[in-house]
Amino acid sequence: MSTTDDPLAWAREYTPVLQSLGDEHEDDEPLAGYTIGLATHMEAVSGCLVEALNRAGAEVLFTASEPQSTHGDVVEYLDDQPGITAYVWEGMTDEEFDAAQHELLEREPDFLLDDGCELISKCVADHPEVAETVLGGGEQTTAGITRAEAMDEEGVLEFPVYGVNDTPMKHYFDNVHGTGESALVNVSITTNTVITGETVVVAGYGYCGRGIARKARGMGAQTVVTEVEPRKALEAHMDGHRVMSMDEAAEIGDIFITSTGTRDVIRREHFEKMGDGAQLANAGHFDVEIDLDGLAEYAESVTEPREGITRYTTPDGRHVNLLADGRLVNLTGPASEGHPAEIIDTTHAMMFVTAYDLLTRDHGLGPGLYAIPDRLDRDVAERKLDTLDIDIDAVTDAQEQYADDWRHEDSAF
């Protein structure tokens, strides 16, 4: 089969951890008899996760976590495979996107793997009879964890959910390197303008914002960070970025990238201060971080000078350029492919082991949001090192004894 017929062929070469999990469990099929509902950005690497779960015996129902990041060839290929059903298509509207997720939930899946807490929140809010039968779930994004935490605090979660996003193998790699690199690459591709020498304003200094700011500076940009959390602001300062309010940053920024997980970070009072040609992009999960309604109300006219760019002309003649409609710039731009495959490989591997662990082990966990066990994170890290042919040292007996002996009676001092 050629790569033209098989849109996952290239991605499989760059997802060795997922492939190793599929290879390991293909014969014994530990997930046989279970139906897994999955919501994520449906591109080729996500297709490799669907494929790995199916190889392990699961029936997989998949949908999108964002309506404009879907690759139609990937969806059509997967939907043709036995035991896999698509509830998504390329070009779907927001209304169709919402309806498709509900349709998937009506199939009563046993397990939910989520991005943005789309399926989990809808299941609890609108399909309570299904929520009562769901065995568990996993959430892989910062925005989704925020929603899951709110649900947990309110006591409405009906099943155990592993917080995949908060594991080292997710936030140190996917959030920092995946979001950081792919966001900047897609800003550059979409605009065909230079980043070197520009002032890049990054809103939010969580793991994603940290990666964007670090890589922007590595490309030669002047970097500014805005924050609401004092410790993160100090961290950004100590990392060498200028830290200021968005009011101040609006006056000097050339490129603005939001990555906060909240709404209305860039508002009308900021648009009014921006220079001519300012570029606005969002790297947060939902298209609410830039006040799009406020921008439209402020502008005198709106045009599309280039695919993927919406130009708002202000009353005083300035141009403010919005990329990818304010949606995820690294996934919904005209040439967007999402994170590099090698990075998403480990994130999706964490999603796989989440389903495997909760469905095949009796943990006795009640409803709620749980930290994913460290052993699972370590296992994925070890698999990744194996694929890179990297050896590390083993802890010696003496070192174990030293760590356990708090008196240090056998130490040399």
From TrEMBL:
<keyword id="KW-0554">One-carbon metabolism</keyword>
<protein>
    <submittedName>
        <fullName>S-adenosyl-L-homocysteine hydrolase</fullName>
    </submittedName>
</protein>
<dbReference type="InterPro" id="IPR015878">
    <property type="entry name" value="Ado_hCys_hydrolase_NAD-bd"/>
</dbReference>
<dbReference type="InterPro" id="IPR042172">
    <property type="entry name" value="Adenosylhomocyst_ase-like_sf"/>
</dbReference>
<dbReference type="GO" id="GO:0004013">
    <property type="term" value="F:adenosylhomocysteinase activity"/>
</dbReference>
<feature type="binding site">
    <location>
        <position position="339"/>
    </location>
    <ligand>
        <name>NAD(+)</name>
    </ligand>
</feature>
<dbReference type="GO" id="GO:0005829">
    <property type="term" value="C:cytosol"/>
</dbReference>
<feature type="domain" description="S-adenosyl-L-homocysteine hydrolase NAD binding">
    <location>
        <begin position="175"/>
        <end position="336"/>
    </location>
</feature>
<dbReference type="InterPro" id="IPR000043">
    <property type="entry name" value="Adenosylhomocysteinase-like"/>
</dbReference>
<feature type="binding site">
    <location>
        <position position="227"/>
    </location>
    <ligand>
        <name>NAD(+)</name>
    </ligand>
</feature>
<feature type="binding site">
    <location>
        <begin position="206"/>
        <end position="211"/>
    </location>
    <ligand>
        <name>NAD(+)</name>
    </ligand>
</feature>
<comment type="similarity">
    <text>Belongs to the adenosylhomocysteinase family.</text>
</comment>
<dbReference type="GO" id="GO:0006730">
    <property type="term" value="P:one-carbon metabolic process"/>
</dbReference>
<dbReference type="Pfam" id="PF05221">
    <property type="entry name" value="AdoHcyase"/>
</dbReference>
<dbReference type="GO" id="GO:0033353">
    <property type="term" value="P:S-adenosylmethionine cycle"/>
</dbReference>
<feature type="binding site">
    <location>
        <begin position="283"/>
        <end position="285"/>
    </location>
    <ligand>
        <name>NAD(+)</name>
    </ligand>
</feature>
<dbReference type="Pfam" id="PF00670">
    <property type="entry name" value="AdoHcyase_NAD"/>
</dbReference>
<keyword id="KW-0520">NAD</keyword>
<keyword id="KW-0378">Hydrolase</keyword>
<dbReference type="InterPro" id="IPR036291">
    <property type="entry name" value="NAD(P)-bd_dom_sf"/>
</dbReference>
<feature type="binding site">
    <location>
        <position position="330"/>
    </location>
    <ligand>
        <name>NAD(+)</name>
    </ligand>
</feature>
